[in-house]
Structures
1.
Amino acid sequence: MGNPKAFLTVPRKEAGYRPVHDRIHDFGEVEQTLNTKDRQEQASRCMDCGVPFCHWACPLGNKDPEWNDALYHGEWENAYKLLKKTNPFPEFTGRICPALCEKACILYHTTGEAVTNRENEAAIAERAFLEGYVTIEKPVRNGKKVAVIGSGPAGLAAANELNLMGYSVTVFEKNEAAGGLLRYGIPNFKLNKTVIDRRISVMEQEGVEFRYNEELIMKNEESSVDGTAVANSSLFTLPSSLKDYDAIVIATGTPTARDLKAPGRELKGVHLALELLSQQNRVLAGMTFSDEERITAKGKDVLVIGGGDTGSDCIGTAHRQGCKSVTQIEIMPKPPVGHNPNTPWPNWPVILKTTSSHEEGCTRRWNINTLEFLGKDGKLTGVKIQPIDWKPNPEGGRPIMVEAGEPEIIKAELVLLAMGFLKPEHPQYPENVFVCGDAANGASLVVRAIASGKQTARKVDEFIIKKKLRS
Ligand SMILES: Cc1cc2nc3c(=O)[nH]c(=O)nc-3n(C[C@H](O)[C@H](O)[C@H](O)COP(=O)(O)OP(=O)(O)OC[C@H]3O[C@@H](n4cnc5c(N)ncnc54)[C@H](O)[C@@H]3O)c2cc1C
Ligand code: SF4
């Protein structure tokens, strides 16, 4: 159970990021690693509290105290086995999970210094690949076939789980490679794409078939996967390529980004965040784009609209592309630093987050509304914005936005819209079709997508078992 006194004597130590002057010139991962001694010492801080809330907070139910204890004792292989029981892809979550468990850690609540669960998880996963603890499992086939549409974390988790249960699984992916937003959204400086390739290779060796550049449109007479809900499954027809499958898992994510329909939206230089991020990741994978197609921040003043993580990824990308300046604006108020009395435990604390990209340099402003995109000869030159405030709504409900200053103009030759994604609607599918991940729940987190994929795999299994019993 860790070292019962370590939480008193060992302070939290994070590996930290590479220095800004070093990392800003490349797309290599920014996060560093601790040496083995320090890492094990960090694991020793997990004090095996009576009720470990980290289990509950982690959507995968990861058993952090168990694997932290193994890690503390230097039992790296055992730590990986314990971690693998609940998390099929700890090398992803260990890098990019916001660590919901750490905000539930008793040490966070008592001392403000949670156990470094996420980093410990990444360290265990990396050691497992390095030392060969990640073995290839060859499941006995059960004669049933499942198609998974979409290869983001949800689709990968569903495919992995079903494959290990003995199903023959084919993953259909519209892109040229697997990973979904892991590959075409999240920048390489947070998640190197070789980490995804390594996992796909394991899954392929274990028997999962991946078919790329195959966009499967699930249509009925009036709608598509991304379209309007139509509650009539009799109208629904499966694409002919799916007819032979016993079950189908839809894991197609949230394809529609929230747009900003302000005047001047059509100007050259106004883009959705993912247009920049996915293209940059493709460039790093060796793809080329014409000057006309290429979106770059090089030499430009950049304005990011949207104060969340996607916006932050745009900031880091703009820096690496050689921008002149970056400003990030957010319509909501600035969250408090450190502690927010409005989001007490067990809510997720809504507090100011400063990412590695913010550290690299950025003007951040809150309570700012966007009025108009300004341009010359069809090209963006600036954005008219307005300081605003939020007043309580006397009728309850959403607060009311009021003007709080004169409109101003922010100079910008590139605007990136990072304002979230629309939740997809789905028609009523036949009973052998299941939806998971962001496609089912709306834009969320990698750890939630993995948990949803695993859960859906179990539902598919239950459905097929029931069907076998019935027939
Ligand atoms: C820029 C950005 C940064 C993020 N950073 C983080 C982070 O740091 N940490 C975190 O936890 N979460 C992060 N997220 C959120 C996280 O990436 C998503 O919640 C997660 O990837 C959702 O997984 P998914 O499998 O449901 O969908 P996706 O990852 O969106 O995957 C869906 C897949 O389905 C494919 N597809 C869609 N339609 C079809 C079709 N008709 N036929 C075949 N294939 C199809 C797509 O090409 C894609 O590969 C970020 C999101 C963005 C946009
Ligand atoms: S997946 Fe995320 S929430 Fe779960 S244990 Fe790992 S870091 Fe914590």
Note: The domain at 6-131 is CATH 1.10.1060.10 (Fumarate Reductase Iron-sulfur Protein; Chain B, domain 2).
2.
Amino acid sequence: MPRNRPLEVIVARSAGTCFGVEAAIDMAEREKKPILGPLVHNPLVVANLAAAGIPILERYQDLDTLAGQVEEVVITAHGYPKQLKAALQERGITYHDATCPVLLKWVYSKIERFEEMGYTILLVGNPNHAEIIASRSYGTHIHVIYSEDDCDALPPISGPTVALCQTTIAREKFERLVDYLREHRFSDLKAVDTRCKPVKSQQEAVENLAQWVDAMLIVGGFESSNTTNLARISERYLPHRTYHIDSAASIDPAWFERVNNLGIGAGTSTPQHQIQQVERRLEELFPGQILIHRTARHDDEAEDASSEI
Ligand code: SF4
């Protein structure tokens, strides 16, 4: 399809899989044992593992029944509740733990440390997400909230309170709920932004790009919380020109009429080869008229990126 001028494509800094997801995929491919739940919220990755003969089991199921079926399982990067890990061991099921180091080293320890100091923890995140289900198991005085209604429904709490968040939540949502809690319930609420570094980098990169390109493609699974958040961030600046796709085949060339600069963002569960498929599809659609720019990744190390807000 001829164009009047080349389409400049800018791939957002840090787009694609993070160290936590890459390590989980490596472990799953190495161990080749059944996985407790989808390894990542990306249908392509899950289909590739299934094609390699690796079963994906129900994440939360009757463990006595499970013990009769398997001897070893893999726990996904999202983590698994502390009590259920113990229950697996009690039933003689060995687990290979791909829980992300960010959760193991920093999120769970913060929950435990704040509790030791007498705080009640308000964990801001999706109550049905595997990461939150696992994280809340590390506290006893802990409440999960995901909306203003959840804040209003909290029981009376005395003593100090601290808000922590899901590693993949949108910054704007966490800050909004912290402001609401401070205004309506806990004026001296302490709040620690526990988003991980790859998520922070991706959110910042998409926000920066979406402000000056003409259209954005966000690549990744529709079930992926962090990919969906990237699409929402982009939509703030490009409400009619943000396209969330989970496959290169969904690209419609009509999207790029009067588009000179196209940004690409991708969530932490989107493999690099899926981003490359998107680039190849654009080259097929506009042969010789695509200029692709990439910026270096600089968040490949697991580190505590939390900060007080
Ligand atoms: S998104 Fe963050 S917390 Fe989740 S696996 Fe990746 S690095 Fe770990």
Note: The radius of gyration is 21 Å.
